[in-house]
Amino acid sequence: MFGIAFIENIFPPSPSDMIIVFGGSLVGMGIVGFAEPLLFATVGSTLGFVVMYKIGDWFGVHILESGKISFIPVESVKKAEAWFQKYGYWVIVANRFLAGTRAVVSFFAGMSELKLGTTALLSFFSALVWNAILITAGFYLGQNWERIGFYIMTYSRIVTLIAVAFALVLVARYLWKKRKSRLNP
User: Does 97 lie in the same domain as 150?
Assistant: First the structure.
């Protein structure tokens, strides 16, 4: 959980939230305690955030001016900088709850030269709250996995029956039309 939470801040399209929910389901099944996944996920997330912050701080302007990140328009950069000018550290707090923005916000936080200590602390607490929510959701999933499995199996059977019935109707319709066209040339 530490590793996936760390990586998600550097390579945003990663399934870290799902892994953390899975860790929470292990808590619900009594396999692990609540504190361990919460701590590992939160520390991993915070360290990943700080790494991207430092990359933005050290190389951000150079990377953007060199065009190495051509998929980020200059207007987006100015908009992100305006957010930091207007909302400051609140962007850091809200960022954890917006999937897909974590690496970008930490990068721009470094470019905007927000104080590292304050930024890291806010990142830690917002990650702590977010991970607690995910682990709690996973906890309830883990406690109810048998019931959820029953509903998923029932749903799968119903969908399969509907799909088979639909396919049979299509095949019967096709055969009927084919037979009809042979009889009436």
Answer: no
Distance in angstroms (rounded) separating the CA atoms of residues 166 and 170: 6
User: Which is it for the CA torsion 145, 147, 153, 159, positive or negative?
Assistant: negative
User: How many structural domains does the chain have?
Assistant: 2
Whether this prediction's pTM lies above 0.85 is answered by: no
113: left (phi over 0), alpha (psi -120 to 50) or beta: left
Same domain for 33 and 82? yes
Domain that holds residue 104: 2-143
Q: What is the pLDDT of residues 110-152, one digit of tens each?
A: 887 788 999 999 999 999 999 999 999 999 888 877 776 676 6
